Here is the input.
Amino acid sequence: MKRISILLADDHAVVIEGLRRILDQRGFRIVGAVTDGRALMQAAAELQPDVIITDVAMPLLNGIEAVRQIRQQNPASKVLFFTMHPEVIYARQALAAGACGYVLKSSAGEELIVAINEALNGRVHVDESIARALQAQPLSSANPIEGLTRRQREVLQLLAEGRQAKEIAATLNVSPKTVEFHKYRIMDMLGVHTVAELARYAAKHGLVE
Here is the structure.
């Protein structure tokens, strides 16, 4: 019988090791582990795992944005978020990006196993406390970040991480002038005036911790 292959993404080594132990004991095959969203995109394309387990907040590209792009390339991928963030806004964004599950790190390991099996059977599994909150809270007005382009969201996260225009340009393979153009366009769209305000806005909306 074919063992289910799993790709892990989390920027904390202790979480990766803990997941390895839990999943190895259950017979799953760990095919890779990465620590940032860009590495996740590359590994997902190269390894084609049956299941991806990722955190929300990660360097260079957050998990939600990475999943959006992975799902565009491979709509069949099964993605689960394993995170410390209980906020409904993150869960909604994760599910809208195409996730099959949203499990809190405070949950028992068995919860994650249930979520994996549910995903493999074509169902969505959300941590019970978050499922109740999703039902209790009506959809709010559109998140302004959703109105940004993919490139603008990428630039916003990197700016919020404190990276300079030249470094961002190298990461995204664009010119520093293009980065500056996006920066001022983002500021205008979000109604902020400084990079510090951008960073606070990005943190509030889950792009960075």
